Automatic annotation (TrEMBL):
Lineage, opening ranks: Bacteria, Bacillati, Bacillota, Bacilli, Bacillales
Species of provenance: Tumebacillus permanentifrigoris
A UniProt-annotated Pfam family: TPP_enzyme_C
Domain (Thiamine pyrophosphate enzyme TPP-binding): residue spans on this chain: 45-191
InterPro entries the UniProt entry points to: 2-oxoacid:Fd_oxidoreductase (IPR051457), OFOB (IPR011896), PFO_beta_C (IPR032686), THDP-binding (IPR029061), TPP_enzyme_TPP-bd (IPR011766)
Residues covered by the Pyruvate ferredoxin oxidoreductase beta subunit C-terminal domain: 195-255
Name of the featured protein: 2-oxoglutarate ferredoxin oxidoreductase subunit beta
Record-level GO BP terms: cellular respiration
Amino acid sequence: LADFRFEKATWCPGCGDFSVLAALQQVCVRMGLEPEDVCCVSGIGCSGKISQHFGSYGFHTLHGRSLPTAQGIKMANQDLTVIAAGGDGDGYGIGMGHFIHACRRNVDITYIVMDNHIYGLTTGQASPTSKKGFKTKTSPTGVAEEPVKPLELAIVAGASFVAQAFSGELKQMQRIIEEGMKHKGFSLINVFSPCVTFNRVNTYEWFKENIVNLDEEEGYDKHNKAKALQRIGETDSVCTGILYQEDRPAFHEAVLGATDRGTVKLPLEIPQAEMQSLMDQFRR
Ligand code: SF4
């Protein structure tokens, strides 16, 4: 486990992101991965610091751009386990366009969104998942818009693995992250990760009182898309578990073939004539 601990995390004491980092570290150890087998790519926000705190390869990229970066890394090297991570503002605000296309593209990466319903790093503005009526610095009379619903959006956009976890339920989160990492294709794991400093409404206690655990619900079928959408809607999206999963070829299998390991696996020695031809084509 020590190998995956790079530096002391600097989040506020009690921040939900600590649990996500701990769960990810423990799952990597459980899966027998070494730090050099994994790359963690993050966007901007408090949760974006995870790529610095996590002891694997890391890439702290631009705001909202963790997904295109992570997909590029995976396509270049199929042997890396690639994790994209960030917050709700990063992923469902500026990064929303990338999110929809990542869902339908099905590149074999895991996307963990630490969803606290607020912008924490910039000290408390309404985010895309803030509930209607929530009072913040940018919504003093209450948020007027409906919140983004990432689970439903992901399923409708074509994601092949959609799950939700809660920082206050570490064991369930570990299981979900492990299943998401083992899933072949794009996996979204939205984690309710409370911001204890700026969100005094959606607290650990609030989530504990309101979450419906669909993993434990008798008869819930994660392979039935229509019923999953219906049941998630009935809980107002405040549910946890592996909510939807389907088996379909990952992007690299569909495009390159299952045996292609990516461009970094190509031999480094490119014959001079071939290189010249490539350069000529590039210049045209
Ligand atoms: Fe966590 Fe909120 Fe503190 Fe950011 S401001 S580290 S999200 S508790």
